[in-house]
Amino acid sequence: MEKDEIILAIETSCDETAVAIIKNGTEMLANIVASQIESHKRFGGVVPEVASRHHVEQVTVVIEEALVTAGLTMEEITAIAVTEGPGLVGALLIGVNAAKALAFAHDLPLVPVHHIAGHIYANRLVTEMHFPLLALVVSGGHTELVYMKEHGSFEVIGETRDDAAGEAYDKVARTLNMPYPGGPHIDRLAQAGQPSIKLPRAWLEPDSYDFSFSGLKSAVINTVHNAAQRGEELAPEDLAASFQASVVEVLVEKTARAARAYDVKQVLVAGGVAANQGLRSALEARFQNEEVPLVIPPLSLCTDNAAMIGAAGSIAYRKGTRADWALNGVPGLDLEAQ
Amino acid sequence: MKALAIDTSNLVMGLAVVDGDTVIGDYTTNLKKNHSIRVMPAIHDLLKEMNMKPNQLDRIVVAKGPGSYTGVRIGVTIAKTLAWTLHKELVGVSSLEVLAQNGKYFPGFVCPLFDARRTQWYTGLYGKKEDGTFGVVKEDALVLRETWLEQLKALQQPVLFLGNDLPLHQEAIAEALGSQAVFGALADHNPRPTELAALGMMREPEDVHHFVPSYLQLAEAEANWLKAQNK
Ligand SMILES: [Zn+2]
């Protein structure tokens, strides 16, 4: 019997200190996430310096919790995987240096992982991947359609030209005076409202898989403003539902179109905004009529976590990807160069 | 007891390995280069030169700040993780105290300083304590240069100033303190990792999980938030 491959993975690219232990690329033995959201709430967004301070306070505690949960010791670990980027540089550095220290202390291979590759590979913790595939990545910092012809190969066929979808949610939430983080609030409100307010859809050029959300964000702000000038009050539920409908329609349509054009065997959804109920149900409804299977991971694997880094790290490890002791956090790391 | 000392808290990057009463190796650079890229390779090379495996260390000593927020965190993260995962002791030492050691035989007070912008310093006052040993006599703090210099003037004793940021402030110091001020020479301004190791050998170990850097000030967003709360 072959020896199990056990990867300890660390993710600190934003405001979650996360450590996971993944067996043979697909089995989660531990998935610990220490969220800082309560701390950042008072600032209305993630403050990089505060995030870095929390990471350094938490990092060994979370590593220990992961090992205890998995019932393992460091002697049983095969390799250390860590998010190299993209993300907040000061935050990335804590994970990277903790990972280097662990790998050095125990003479283990060190595997650098791209954060978005991680989000996509969260799906492999749910079901096996079938190539070629298309991944829709939607998060606070990213909105991308990624084509994968095989494991570890990433081609970005469409991306946002301005704001990421999650960013648009947060900005609109701020306009509507909702607490941080805004995405989940809009999602909840939208469930109770009707998409009755006319808002634009940014389709861009007919053959483009790119996205644009800054115009929509401005349209929402103008609509609120104009209504106020007329002395009218818009129901926040309807505004949220209308905004969400516009975002979701473009995301769903472009994904479905790309899936056909590229003749893929699977469509994966990834990233924090994939936790959005409106997006999930619209995708599910749309793909019911398509032949290609749609995979959306459970909420806990959509938001930032280290299990996804371990899953992507397993593939990178098997492909022989290694970092040396000079590994650094790279805030603008390129996915296609992986 | 074998100890590894790590200082990445300011521009100077320093490492030292001590075995009992002997310093068996050290490495220092004073370069504007990335600590995150350079420190782990340097630790690897130094231990290799010593023919030493990480698990042969008994103690990790780290300069805990003040200094560059990011720099301090790199050293503290590595030190915490090594100590925790190898089940070794962890000791943190003030980065200012390490620098102050370069003046430990000076007959008077020693003022190590790191520039903190807007004519502020991270500093403390070191000298002969009541028990006759050299140590801190005025706790490390973030101070306004002019206020601090007034306090030093009132001591009416010579003060030795140390630190690579001195050129920014030497004129102001000389003006405020006149002949009371003494300035370190070429080789006195880099914090020495061997001194960090020596101090670390004498201290009680810390609780690894709860060990945090000594920033000496809140994150700016936090300070602003507190100010807004008190309005
Ligand atoms: Zn993410």
Helix and strand topology:
The complex is a heterodimer of chains A (338) and B (231).
Chain A: E1 6-11, E2 16-23, E3 27-35, H1 37-41, H2 48-70, E4 79-85, H3 89-106, E5 110-114, H4 115-121, E6 133-138, E7 143-148, E8 155-159, H5 165-175, H6 182-191, H7 214-229, H8 236-261, E9 266-270, H9 277-288, E10 294-295, H10 299-302, H11 307-318
Parallel strand pairs in A: 1-4, 4-5, 6-9, 9-10
Antiparallel strand pairs in A: 1-2, 2-3, 6-7, 7-8
Helix pairs in contact in A: 2-3, 4-11, 5-6, 5-7, 6-8, 8-9
Chain B: E1 2-7, E2 12-19, E3 22-30, H1 35-49, E4 59-63, H2 69-86, E5 89-93, H3 95-100, E6 109-115, E7 120-128, E8 134-144, H4 145-155, E9 159-162, H5 170-177, E10 181-183, H6 193-202, H7 220-229
Parallel strand pairs in B: 1-4, 4-5, 6-9, 9-10
Antiparallel strand pairs in B: 1-2, 2-3, 6-7, 7-8
Helix pairs in contact in B: 1-2, 4-5
Bound molecules: zinc ion.
Number of helices of chain A: 11
Largest sheet of chain A: 5 strands, mixed
List the total number of helices of chain B: 7
Sheet with the most strands, sense and barrel status of chain B = 5 strands, mixed
Nearest-integer average pLDDT of chain A = 95
End-to-end span of chain B in angstroms? 53 Å
Instruction: Kindly provide the radius of gyration of chain B, computed on alpha-carbon positions and rounded to a whole number of angstroms.
Output: 18 Å
Question: CATH-wise, what's the superfamily of the largest domain in chain B?
Answer: ATPase, nucleotide binding domain
